[in-house]
Amino acid sequence: MRISTQWLKDYLKLDIPADELAEKIERTAVEVDGVIRPDEGQKKVVVGHVLTCEPHPDSDHLHVCQVDVGEDEPLQIVCGAPNVAAGEKVVVALPNSWIGNHTKIKKSKMRGVKSAGMLCALDELGFDEKLVPKEVADGIFILPDDAVPGEPVFGYLGMDDEIIDMSVTPNRGDMLSMNGTAHELAAIYDQTPNMPTVDLHEDEQDDATDQLEVRVDADEHDVPMYKMRLIKNVTIKPSPLWLQIRIWNAGMRPINNVVDATNYILMQYGQPLHAFDFDQLKNGHVNVRLAKAGEHMTTLDGEDRELLPTDLVICSEDTPICLAGTMGGLDTEVTDATTSIALEGAVFDAVKIRKTAHNHDLHSEASMRYERGIDHGMTETALNAAAAMIAELSGGTVTNNVVIGRDEDVQPTTVTITLSKINHVLGTTLSVEAVADIFKRLDFETTVAGETYTVTVPSRRWDIHIPADLIEEVARLYGYDNLPSTLPTGQPTIGKLNETQQVIRDSRKLMESAGLTQAISYSLTTEEKAKAFALHPSEVTKLDFPMSSERTTLRLSLVSGLLDDLAYNNARKEHNVALYEEGRVFYSQPEQVRPKEIEHIAGAITGSMTKKSWGVAEQPVDFYQIKGIVEGYLKSLALDDAVSYVATSDHPEMHPGRTANIFVGDQLVGFVGEIHPNTAKAYKVRETYVFELDLTALIALPKERQQYQPISKFPSITRDVAMLIDDTVTNATIVDLINDKGGAHLQSVELFDVYTGSHVPAGKKSLAYTLTYRDQNATLVDDEVTQAFNKVLAALTDELGAEIR
C-alpha cells in the first residue's frame, strides 16, 4: 500500500519528515518497505511551451520545435513524439539535466539539426510503463495550460510527493486505505482526523429501482452485502490531472474518469467497486451466484477463462459478466461510448475471493482487500462517494435510491477488559485515565466503571474481537520501547540436549569422521521419487498447491535426494562424492489426518573415498566399505540386541545381488547396498552404494550400558589356523563359532587370507584366521591357550566339516 504524504495532509496536520513518519508507522503499526521520492536524482527538468513545431528536413517523423523554457531565448529541440504540437505545454529536460534511470541529457545533433535538450514522456522520467495513461503511452506528456514555462515540472506531475510504501499484514486490512491510515496516524499523534464527507445529489424524478433489478442467489456467508447505484448521462474522458496523479502515485494506471473515480474511492475507503456499462446489461437485470462447471467468461484483460464451481460471479440474466471481487468482464466494460453506469458496491467472502484469485492467477487491488477484509459499515458510503464523484467528473446524474440485492446489519463490537489485566500482561503500572486516553485516541467509544472498561469498537477495526486485541492496542500506542524489561523469574536449570537430540548430533559427527559430507535436500520431490527406496509401506502425501511439478510430494526416503545431489556433482565433473543426510521422512496411512514424521539417516557414495596421490591409487568404493561405515555407526549406538545383515531383493531400486536388509534383533531398521544399474541410469550417476537407517527406531531400541576398562598391561598370545571348508559356509558363521568356543580369554578373531584356485578342490575355499588371546589380570601360559585353541579346532572340524591345514 503506497501512502501519499501530500494526500495525508488532507486529513492531518503532519509537518514531519517522511522518513520519521515511516519509522513511526513501522514501530507502531505495520512494516514499511521504504520511502519513495519520484523526483530523486533528477534535476533541470522544467515546463516548456512549444512555440513552433516544424517537420524535420531530413526525417518523416521528427519535428524541430522552438520551446520557451523561461529563458531569454527559446531552445531548439528535435522531437519524434507523434503528439507534439505548437501551443502545447510539455516536459523539457534541459542540457546537462538528469532524468529517470540516471540518464544525462546533453546537447546533440539529430540528422544534422541541433537539439538543445529533450521533450520527455512519463516513462523517461522514471514512471513505470504500466502506470502511464494510454492516451500518452506512445508520446510525450502534455501539461495543463496553466503550467508556467521554466518552472520545475515535478510539482505538476506529483513527483515532489513523498510516498510511504507500507507492507500491510493480513490482520491490519484497515490500513489498506487512506481513511484507515489516517485514523491510525491520528491515534499515534493524538490528532482528530478531517475525514471526507459525501456530497451526493440524486435526481428524485428518476428512480433506479425501476430500471435496475438485483438478485443475490449465493449463500449469505459468501455475499453478505450487495448494492448498486445507477448514474446516467455520463461522458467518458480522461480524468483531471490531480486525480491521475493520485492514481499513479498509488501504483495504479489512470484509465478514464469513471474507472479512476472507482480506484480513487478504493484507495480512500478501502472498498472495492466496479462500474458496468448499464446499456450492456440484459434488461437491467443483475444476479450473483456461484459459477457452473464449464462456464466461460472473457475478463477485462482479454483472456477467456473457464470458471470453476467455487468462483463467485456477477451475471446479467444468468450470463457471467464479472468475476466477483477480482476482475470485470469485457462485455460490460466502460468504453468511450458508455453513457450510463451501473456501479457495484459489495462484500464478498475472503476465502472465496482468495481461491478465485489463486485459481485464475488474477491478484488485483480489489482481491487483495477482500482477502484481508473490508469495513462492512462503509460499503454504502463508499458507493455513494464514488457515484457523486463520477457524476461530478463526467457531467452525469445519479438516479434516486440504492438498489439493494442483500443488506447486512453491521453492528460495532463490544469488548470488556480490566486495568489490572492490561497491567499484568504488559508489566506496566498505567492509570485508569492513561488507558482511557489511548482508547479515546483510537476513537473507540469507552465507558469506565471502576477499573473496568467497556469498549465499543467501530466496524473499521474488524480485527479487534477479544480483550487480548485491546491489550495489543494499548501496547502499540503506549510504545513497545516504553514497556519495562525484566529478567525471567524461577529456578534456573542447566540446559542440555535430550537423548534424541544428542544421538542426532553424535550421528553427524560419526558420519563426518567416516569421510562423508553432510547434504541437505528438499523434503518435497516428485511422486515417483518419493515412493523410491521406502523402508516401510506407506501412502504418499501430496500438496494441494505445489510450487512446481518437481516439488509435489513429501519424501518417504532420504536416498532419492542424495542421488539428486550426486547427479548434480557428476554433471560438474565431480566423480568422487560421499554424502550423508540426517532428516525426516513422512509416512502416512489412509486413516491418518497428517503424515507421521520419522527421523532417518542415509548415505550415498560414488567413485573413491581415497584421494589419488603419488604412490596411492584410487580404490573404487564397494559393498564392504559402505557396510563397514554402517557397522561402525551401529556399534557406536551400543544396541542391546545383535545386528544382522540379510541379503534381499525386496527393494526394486537396489541391486538384487548386492543389497542387505539390516535387522536389530527381529526389527528391520534399514538397508545397505548398491543401487540398481537402471536406477543409476535414471538418476544419471555412476556405480553408487547407499544406506538408509530408521534413526527414530534405533533411538527407541534398548541399549547396553557402556563400560570402559583400562588396556591390559599383560602380553597377548596369538594362534593361526588355516582350513579348507565348503564354499557355502560364510565368514560370519566361522567367526561366530570361534568366538563361542574360544574361551574367556579370546580377544579377537581376524581373517587374513582367502584363497580359491589351484590345489584347492572344487566347491572348497581356503581361509586363514589369527586368534588373539589376552588376560586382563595376569600373564597367560602357553598350555592354557593351547587347550582353548584345540577346542576351537575340534568345533570347526566337527560342526562345520573343516579340514585343518
UniProtKB/TrEMBL annotation:
Residues annotated as binding Mg(2+): 463, 469, 472-473
Q: Which reaction does it catalyse?
A: tRNA(Phe) + L-phenylalanine + ATP = L-phenylalanyl-tRNA(Phe) + AMP + diphosphate + H(+)
Annotated EC = 6.1.1.20
Give the enzyme's main class according to its UniProt record, as a single word: ligase
Q: How is the cofactor bound?
A: Binds 2 magnesium ions per tetramer.
Q: Please give the SUPFAM superfamilies that the UniProt record associates with this protein.
A: Anticodon-binding domain of PheRS (SSF54991), Class II aaRS and biotin synthetases (SSF55681), Nucleic acid-binding proteins (SSF50249), PheT/TilS domain (SSF56037), Putative DNA-binding domain (SSF46955)
Q: Which UniProt keywords apply?
A: Aminoacyl-tRNA synthetase, ATP-binding, Cytoplasm, Ligase, Magnesium, Metal-binding, Nucleotide-binding, Protein biosynthesis, RNA-binding, tRNA-binding
- What InterPro entries does the record point to? aa-tRNA-synth_II/BPL/LPL, B3/B4_tRNA-bd, DNA-bd_dom_put_sf, Fdx_antiC-bd, Fdx_antiC-bd_sf, NA-bd_OB-fold, Phe-tRNA-ligase_IIc_bsu, Phe-tRNA-ligase_IIc_bsu_bact
Q: Does the keyword NAD belong to this entry?
A: no
One Gene Ontology MF term: tRNA binding
What residue stretches are annotated with the FDX-ACB domain?
A: 712-805
Pfam families, per database record: B3_4, B5, FDX-ACB, tRNA_bind, tRNA_synthFbeta
Cellular component GO terms, alphabetically?
phenylalanine-tRNA ligase complex
Q: Which residues form the B5 domain?
A: 410-485
Cofactors required: Mg(2+)
| Compartments it resides in | Cytoplasm
Q: Transmembrane ranges?
A: none
PANTHER family linked? PHENYLALANINE--TRNA LIGASE BETA SUBUNIT, PHENYLALANYL-TRNA SYNTHETASE BETA CHAIN AND LEUCINE-RICH REPEAT-CONTAINING PROTEIN 47
HAMAP family according to UniProt: Phe_tRNA_synth_beta1 (MF_00283)
Q: How does it assemble?
A: Tetramer of two alpha and two beta subunits.
Family label? Belongs to the phenylalanyl-tRNA synthetase beta subunit family. Type 1 subfamily.
Q: What protein name does the entry list?
A: Phenylalanine--tRNA ligase beta subunit
Q: Organism, per UniProt?
A: Lactiplantibacillus xiangfangensis
Query: Taxonomic classification, please?
Result: Bacteria, Bacillati, Bacillota, Bacilli, Lactobacillales
